[in-house]
Amino acid sequence: MEHTSTREWLRTLVAFDTTSRNSNLALIETIRDALAAQGVASELTHAPEGGKANLFATLPAHDGATQGGIILSGHTDVVPVDGQDWSSDPFSLTEKGDRLYGRGTADMKGYIAAALALVPEFLSLKRAKPLHLAFSYDEEVGCLGAPVMLEALKRRGVRAEGCVVGEPTGMRVVVAHKGMNLYRCRVHGKAAHSSLTPRGCNAIEYAARLICRVRDLADEFQSRGPYDDAFDVPFTTMGTNLVSGGIAVNTIPDACEFSYEFRNLPGMSPDGIQNRIEAYIREDLLPRMRQDHAGARIEIEPMPAAVLSLEASEHAAITRLARALTGDDGTTKVSYGTEGGLFQSAGIPAVICGPGHIEQAHRADEFVEAAQLDACEDFLRRLAGSLVD
Ligand SMILES: [Zn+2]
């Protein structure tokens, strides 16, 4: 079996335009075939709408054991390059000095490339525990792929002791991130000529009250906490970022739609926050609306693009191992979401540690430094080494 380096793997992976709106199947099949050539079988779990798949593969322990061990997790999709001013082709790996440019080099094909390049070494080690590769689709549009994979693992009874999600952290150990929750709200009132206000029910005005309620809650979290100073923004944030309604300046609008989000600290329950919004609607807003119009309604629906928060335990073996391998004992908590929260909620302790920097992700001229890839290889090599008897 010919050895493929991390750099060669990265060149291959970057060349697939796996922007989330596209299929990732060609990339997944390439990985599946490369693993199969080394005797490693992959389980593909497909998106319900087709065109995309997750890949899960187990490199068994020397005695054939497939339970336990550590998962190396990465997402295969990337964010769009639309409207960005790139100095080189984003889907062709371009080296300049110590930097390797291309969409996904940092977020997060570099990590996947390093893991794949090391598979022959992983296989040659006399490991007491298995290593697993978990590569997902549609992370960038709200972690849609990983739950499909985790559901299949649960059905098959696959267990693991820990997971390293290789999002770009500059190879530091990230132990926590906030959750992200997005809701769409539709307010239904009653249309009328704007000269006859008592005959209508103004959906925009009631939507505005609800939007202000969201803001009041946001102000409460900012002024009263809870706080966690390890985060950039040390409290739960909340806001309305999209709104539409009305059809004419002289017509009372019968509909208004808006979307609000909140990003909760790991210790705060997203349901608890959402319950406060819904209690306000039920007990205050809707009764008032129905005085205008008995048929008034407010519908709220959670959007699929939700990210569970992550808070890794310092006592978890995977946290201690990642800290030992990197020498990083700092408490780093980040504002971006990852699939780590999903693994954690599936009973698999997770930490975030990967090559490249989030500052370079999602932008034009995204890059990863060769030194970061080297550090990642070194990390993964020693991580696998820790599984040897
Ligand atoms: Zn990412």
Q: Could you please describe the fold and organization of this structure?
A:
The protein is an alpha+beta fold. The chain has 10 helices and 18 strands. The chain has helices at residues 6-15, 25-36, 105-117, 119-124, 146-156, 203-224, 270-292, 317-326, 340-345, 370-385, and strands spanning 42-46, 53-59, 70-75, 94-96, 99-101, 131-136, 162-165, 174-177, 181-188, 192-193, 237-245, 251-252, 255-263, 297-302, 310-311, 332-334, 350-352, 367-369. The longest helix is centred in the C-terminal third of the chain and has 23 residues, at 270-292. The two termini are 26 Å apart. The model has no long low-confidence stretch (mean pLDDT 96). Zinc ion (ZN) binds at residues 75, 107-108, 139, 167. Residues 75, 107-108, 139, 167 line the site of zinc ion.
